Amino acid sequence: MIKAAKKLIPGQNLRYVGKGFPGFKKGQPYMVFVEYKGIHQMLVKYNDLNIIVNSYHTEPL
Known about the structure:
mainly beta; five-stranded antiparallel beta sheet
């Protein structure tokens, strides 16, 4: 099934629903969208760190 592309604006809150990564803490409220990095990746701010995550592993709040 193909998911519809998400159109996000900088500063928008996201919830991460993918597999955990080093430094990921379950129960943290959200990530903040910074910018797109290619077709399926986005730069987000999480715990004052800029990280790149797959856009299919996030849900806008």
